[in-house]
Amino acid sequence: MALDADGFPVTRSAAGVVRAAAGVRELAVLDARVSGCRACPRLVAWREEVARVKRASFRDEDYWGRPVPGLGPADARIAVVGLAPAAHGGNRTGRVFTGDRSGDWIFAALWRAGLASQPTSTHIGDGLELTGVRVAAAVRCAPPDNAPTPQERDTCSPWLARELALLPDLRVIVVLGGFGWTALWPVLAAAGYRLPRPRPVFGHGVEVDLEGPRGRLTLLGSYHVSQQNTFTGRLTEPMLDAVLARATELAGTFARE
């Protein structure tokens, strides 16, 4: 696999993503391969344009301008899956949900739930550590208008599938928003989980139990931590805290079984 100028393995097609994700045995290796992906031309062009032009308030910063890998330990019992990095958030900082208001919400909530070492995530190296939770996005590149296409979602899905497979203790997935909810079903079907028919409709607080090759897995729906939801009060801190409290309760319950 060829390396780019920064030493990341380069993937240039949907078929290449499938090959690159298959067989990876360590999250660090997967993260490096995610970081070198160039399989979606529209997303590559957009993320690099944003990194080059920059927002005025960040003009002195070096933007990441790449796909953004997940964050969190391999022994996580909980995964949090969002939509995609923000153009001037994760696409700038190189860390998922970091450097924007959505990140302010999710990491503060993870801290209140006892899953993060601090309530803020501003940049790589800021001291943040996660315990028992892995945070990732369904699509790894910042999309124009925060709207990936279905093809881009599907091209990116092997990265998410492999990431979840590398969490052997995974018991709960908190899904932020309807896009992630839709993206997750084919990933879980391919992993051998028996999916309900019809598939449950996304909603805040929706809870779905699945059975699969590694036992029980529970999906919990939450409205996304986007400004559109948090500014309007559609999603409040108590609402998000309740979902994460349920996630930690379920993860702890399974840990004792």
From TrEMBL:
CDD domains: UDG-F5_TTUDGB_like (cd10031). The keyword DNA repair applies. Pfam families: UDG. One of its GO terms (biological process) is base-excision repair. One of its GO terms (molecular function) is 4 iron, 4 sulfur cluster binding. Residues 69-244 form the Uracil-DNA glycosylase-like domain. It comes from the Bacteria. Keywords: 4Fe-4S, DNA damage, DNA repair, Hydrolase, Iron, Iron-sulfur, Metal-binding. Belongs to the uracil-DNA glycosylase (UDG) superfamily. Type 5 (UDGb) family. This is Type-5 uracil-DNA glycosylase.
